[in-house]
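Notes to self, Acetamidase:
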Amino acid sequence: MPSQSRRRAIKLGSSLGLLGVAMPFAVETIAAQVGGRVPASREHIVESNERTVRVGVVDPKAEAVVTIESGDVVRYVNTWINWGNEAKYGMSFAEREPIRRKYPQGPYSLVGPVAIKGAHPGDLIECRMIKLRPIQWGWNAAPRGVGALPKDFDKPYLKYFRFDNDRRYANFAPGIRIPLKPIQGFMATAPASDETKSAILAGPNGGNIALSELVAGTSLFLPVSRDGAMVWTGNSHAAQGDGQVDQTTIETAMEDLQIQYILHKGASLPGPMAETPTHWIGLGFGETIADALKSGLREQIKWLAATAGISDVEAYSIYSMAGSFRITQYADQVASAYSVIPAKAVHGMLPKAVFTPEMRNQIAARTRAGGLAGNV
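result:
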């Protein structure tokens, strides 16, 4: 579709609340060696507004903002920043405190849910990250009582950043520049229960996973627990270090976010998993780093054994020789504006380079194929 027509569609969508405007759309080519070439699809435009956003929570009873076919792309335009878009550039920490405390279940402005036709419990949704362009600014903050060192600093910290026009970097200080690697910190399918869940949490359906590797050209796999899958996203980061030890990253929102959703029937995994051009990445969650490492490793061993056709102990050995386990998220909160504490999270990175091209293709195909669920 010509760009002018796409601009008209965006303008029309704005007047309609942007709740499912769809158009023919050929996905731009991305350098992703994940699941083969991106198929042609349709594009659906969704804007953040009072009807499409829940702040701090996943609401399993929320109606879909758009229903799509497998392979379609959802383009989220002008997503909201934290706290229902109430945060503004340059606010002092004291000015932000009343806003933070308005949302005790969490700060993230989640947009959704997106329903995928034909998705049922036991299936798998592949979230292919096509484009992530942040807005022009963001911040890093360290409130007292949170992060990996909750008692080490007497005063809260807050620093704002402006990004260059190409969204390549943020200047921190003279001689210090932070490269931008935009991700969505929150990605989740709706849980089976009708109970509202805090967006700070993460688990089998995804959630606040904050995986720094999920840049454009990668895929996140999420198990389906209810009809339609009902996918939510939010918590945009312009850059993030593994562990996000002061509890935040460069927090931002997305000017243009494009995600392709692909349904894999009967291919459910026990929890979220990612694929990049160079690695398979499994995640584990727990009350301690040790618990997160063990739970994630056990699931990754079973996945690798099933997809590579090897024994569990052989998979265990491969992860010990070639895998790399990193802290995804660490929090030791002693005080917080929020009612829950995020889980400790560890991700295991398995390089594709240790496998032959034929074995890489087998692992990718079996991960996306039906019948794997019973083996993992």
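- Confidence is low (pLDDT under 50) at residues 1-26, 28-32.
- The chain has two domains: 3-264, 274-375.
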